[in-house]
Amino acid sequence: MLSFVLKRLLQSVIVMLLLSIVIFVGLWLIGNPADVLISSEATEADRLAAIKALGLDKPLWQQYLIFLGNAVQGDWGTSFVYKEPVTTILLQRLPASVELAAVAFVIAITVSIPAGLYAGLRPDSAPARAIMAFSLVGVSIPTFWQGMLLIIAFGIAIPILPVGDRGDIATYFGITSSLWTLDGWSHVVLPAFSLALLKMSLLIRVTRAATVEVSHLDFVTFAYAKGVRAWKVVIGHILRNALIPLVTVIGIEVGNLLAYGVITETVFSWPGLGKLLINSIKVLDRPLIVAQLTYTALLFIFINFVVDILYTVIDPRVKSVMGRQVT
């Protein structure tokens, strides 16, 4: 197990290094931040001074090495626009994105797994067909469009929920969050449901497919034949084995919730990392963009690492294979 973990960590470091190079070169190809940040009326001397102050006068390889050296020490640079350390700005916006992702994740999991399990156990029933129809609609409607529909329905036509900002914020146990207040919950409901809808629909379909496949396996039939109670068979045999493909999908979707809530945060004016990324791209604030994209890459690498470890807990076959590889 230890050799497997060390091997995965080494692979993660190599992947992260390669991704950082791709991100840095890609942003360099997009354009020169000086063309956006420096006034067109500035003199040539002022322009050259500004470029030097931003560190854009150095060759690309040198800029990258400086960035890499600082990043290893925890310094992600200073924002070209906000004139503040990038780490400070990201930490200010991160709680809002985590709140939105956490609520969306809870909604998606609590609805999708029971619904998908039922649809897999009773595939020909009317409720199962309704569940699958709902999931089909959920994966078919673009995220920005469903967000706009929710705003029109519950913010304009039936104005019962706010459609922008985080609402009131409170601090308890050293944690500052809008989820401590009723007003904060009223603000998070619509964007969280919009963000969760696609994930919910996908997880329903994956859960149903895994349930149908596992339900017809011999060990499930044998458990029923032994007289094991139905709920024990469902939970201990069907659901546990159906979780094996679900773990991968859930891991990826958790990363998507945190990293790719850009559209939802923009539509609902949610002050998180997604909206910050869009604003940073508009003005080519390179340090902020690099930091956010690198954070996203690190997030997915970490999630994939955790998923690999969870496989050994859920599926004994993986553990036995790892044991043979180690020996």
Describe the protein's architecture and organization:
The chain has 327 residues and is an all-alpha fold. It has 14 helices and 2 strands. It has helices at 2-30, 33-37, 44-53, 60-72, 86-121, 126-140, 143-157, 182-215, 218-225, 230-259, 262-267, 273-282, 286-314, 316-326; strands at 170-172, 175-177. Strands 1-2 form a two-stranded antiparallel ribbon. A hairpin with a 2-residue loop joins strand 1 (170-172) and strand 2. Helix 9 runs antiparallel to helix 10. The longest helix has 36 residues, at 86-121. The protein is globular, with a radius of gyration of 24 Å. It starts with a helix and ends with a helix.
For the sheet with most strands, the description reads: 2 strands, antiparallel
**Low-pLDDT runs:** none
Order of helices and strands: HHHHHHHEEHHHHHHH
Determine the structural class based on helices, strands and strand pairing. Answer: mainly alpha
Q: How many individual β-strands?
A: 2
Q: Strand fraction band? A: under 5%
The percentage helix is over 70%
* Overall shape: globular
Mean pLDDT over the full residue set: 82
End-to-end Cα distance, whole Å, is 11 Å
Strand order, main sheet: write it out: 1-2
Oligomer: single chain
Rg (CA only): 24 Å
Q: What is the count of helical runs?
A: 14
Characteristics:
327 residues; mainly alpha; two-stranded antiparallel sheet; 77% helix; globular
Question: Would you summarize the structure shown here?
Answer:
77% of the residues lie in helices and 2% in strands.
Task: Outline the secondary-structure elements.
Blueprint: H1 2-30, H2 33-37, H3 44-53, H4 60-72, H5 86-121, H6 126-140, H7 143-157, E1 170-172, E2 175-177, H8 182-215, H9 218-225, H10 230-259, H11 262-267, H12 273-282, H13 286-314, H14 316-326
Antiparallel strand pairs: 1-2
Helix pairs in contact: 1-13, 5-6, 5-8, 5-10, 6-8, 7-8, 8-10, 9-10, 10-13, 12-13, 13-14
